[in-house]
Design a protein that fits this description.
Layout lengths: L24 H11 L2 H8 L4 H10 L7 H20 L5 E3 L5 E5 L2 E4 L8 H7 L10 H10 L7 E4 L5 E3 H4 L19 E3 L2 E3 L7 H7 L4 E9 L11 E12 L6 H13 L7 E3 L18 H29 L10 E9 L2 E11 L2 E11 L1 H6 L5 E9 H9 L12 H4 L19 E8 L11 H12 L3 E11 L6 E9 L8 H19 L2 E2 L1
Parallel strand pairs: 4-8, 10-11
Antiparallel strand pairs: 1-2, 2-3, 5-7, 6-7, 8-9, 9-14, 11-12, 12-13, 13-14, 15-17, 15-18, 16-17
Helix pairs in contact: 2-4, 3-4, 6-12, 9-10, 14-15
The chain binds phenylalanine.
The site of phenylalanine has 11 residues, from strand 13 and strand 14.
């Protein structure tokens, strides 16, 4: 029968017992299902057709909740997403009147000198990891959201990452020369539209339209960044904010009294907290000029107690899920002064984890002009931003940020909505490096050569097969004065062993693209 198709799978080491190439799929699934050995199953299933796996599971009447069924469903869904995206029109095209355009998010954007979006980034924007309930990022998202009372905080998941330069920067008080606006740091569709670099880009919209006093925004955000184990050009943030209108109170004392009574209602967290309790400091972390010290202190307290409650809630849930860590000591957090263009005073909250202080939240008291620009003048409040990958890597023990994008069943099958478990490493495939060295154009300054431009070429040609890229050498010829740069690319797949032919081909493409794009002379 059709489901007795022979299993086609590579003969890699981790397949252990299941090395027999001619084992029928049905027998295979029965064996693994009775074994409940998800890892072994996933290793095998990664190389066979998930549709077939599902059909056999149906015949075997395995429950929809069974790990095998979930894993196969998840991989089909992810592949469908990728396919859905690749059916769309080419990213770049020209119209009948010869206008070059970017086609994305069911829209067309006229290309100009700012356009720097690349196909690999466009593809990522179609994946929508937060929509997969079993992706560790959405597990964390849901867990955090569950700590916020829904009658006070509305959950808002913005659809597409294209926002105006105004929303991303101007409406948040970014100076016109702020380095974040540079093309070297931000993906532009054209000079008016960027891929949001942070979820704060939606603050204005939410302050204006959401009826609860607070909201939570979670989304994918984009930054042209280096490539390594903790940096990826697309990552996910959660933004939270809370506001009070001065118009609802006859006097400022009443407003402050209300904020303070709201603060008292926040459950206490069971954390060890290090805080100087100096809510602002004129020289290093000033309050806003138009705000009274009492109001600033009331808002800061509400903000800090809220975020402490969230962190407390997360770690309590983890203790409940994971009995091994039940008697671990209280989690330590600390508050550090910070700076953001749209909050004052501002802080970062750090958590002590595995011997290190890790920054979790950026936060602060929202600046009055941000409310004015959002067309809700006369409001006061606070905001925070949180990197979901960082927290997920820490809580699940996920060692490489690329894994969140993996469609490998050995990864996907380990997670389930509503549960935080330790990630079980599957074998790390070997890494290999290759260098790209070149002479810059005569008379050009190495400072004008931007790492991130190089990174994008690597990304477009080798996508997730690259673990790390670093500038390893800079050299000026003593006689000619010409400058030479050398970048090291570390190739490593999360899913298989790369063959040197394959790496050499990628490397050749990258080299010629670098030469062509930057007019450099390869060495
Ligand atoms: N948007 C900021 C960032 O990405 C984080 C932040 C959000 C800081 C809200 C303060 C308030 O770094």
């Amino acid at each position: 029968m059709w489901f007795f198709h022979k299993v086609r799978y590579a003969t890699t080491r981790w397949m252990g017992n299941f090395r027999n190439k001619h084992l029928p799929l049905k027998t295979l699934i029965l064996r693994v299902a009775s074994d409940q050995n998800q890892l072994m199953f996933a290793s095998i299933a990664a190389t066979i057709d998930s549709m077939q796996v599902l059909s056999v599971c149906r015949v075997l009447e395995l429950s929809r909740k069974h790990n095998i069924v979930r894993a196969a469903t998840s991989i089909i869904r992810q592949r469908a997403n990728v396919r859905y995206y690749s059916d769309k029109p080419a990213l770049f095209s020209s119209t009948q009147d010869g206008q070059n355009v970017v086609n994305i998010f069911n829209n067309t954007y006229i290309v100009d000198e700012f356009t720097n979006i690349t196909p690999s980034i466009a593809e990522k924007s179609g994946r929508k990891l937060l929509k997969d309930p079993a992706n560790p990022l959405s597990i964390i998202k849901k867990l955090i959201e569950s700590n916020f009372p829904p009658q006070e905080y509305t959950v808002f998941d913005p659809p597409e990452p294209a926002v105006t330069v105004y929303e991303n920067f101007d409406s948040l008080n970014f100076r016109s020369d702020h380095p974040g606006r540079n093309k070297t740091d931000t993906y532009y569709l054209n000079s008016d539209i960027v891929l949001r670099t942070h979820t704060s880009a939606h603050q204005g919209h939410c302050f204006r339209t959401i009826s609860t006093p607070g909201f939570l925004i979670s989304a994918d955000v984009y930054r042209r960044d280096e490539i390594d184990r903790t940096h990826y050009p697309v990552f996910h943030q959660m933004e939270g904010a809370r506001a009070w209108s001065r118009d609802d109170f006859a006097t400022e004392e009443e407003l402050i009294a209300k904020i303070n009574s709201d603060t008292l209602k926040i459950p206490s967290p069971g954390l060890q907290i290090i805080d100087s309790n100096k809510q602002f400091e004129e020289s290093s972390n000033p309050k806003q000029p138009g705000m009274s010290p009492e109001l600033c202190i009331a808002l800061s307290n509400h903000l800090k107690r809220t975020l402490e409650m969230v962190v407390g809630g997360i770690f309590t849930s983890i203790r409940q899920m994971d009995r091994d860590s039940a008697d671990k000591e209280a989690v330590q957090i600390r508050w550090i002064d910070a700076y953001f263009p749209f909050t004052a005073p501002s802080w970062e909250m750090e958590v002590y984890w595995d011997g290190d202080w890790l920054e979790l939240f950026g936060s602060g008291v929202t600046e009055a002009p941000v409310f004015d620009m959002a067309q809700v003048p006369n409001h006061v409040g606070w905001a925070f931003g949180l990197g979901l990958e960082r927290l997920a890597m820490l809580l699940f023990g996920i060692p490489d940020i690329r894994l969140f994008w993996s469609t490998d069943l050995r990864f996907i099958s380990q997670f389930e909505s509503g549960r935080i478990n330790r990630f079980q490493k599957f074998s790390k495939y070997p890494s290999t490096h290759r260098d790209v060295a070149f002479w810059l154009k005569e008379g050009s300054d190495p400072k004008d050569f931007h790492d991130n431009d190089f990174m994008d070429i690597v990304r477009d040609h080798a996508a997730d097969l690259v673990e790390d890229v670093k500038l390893i050498d800079k050299f000026t010829h003593p006689k000619t004065g010409r400058h030479s740069l050398c970048y090291r690319i570390v190739y490593q797949s999360m899913e298989r062993t790369l063959q040197s032919d394959e790496i050499n081909a990628l490397q050749d493409n990258i080299r010629s693209e670098v030469a062509k794009t930057f007019g450099v002379q390869l060495r």
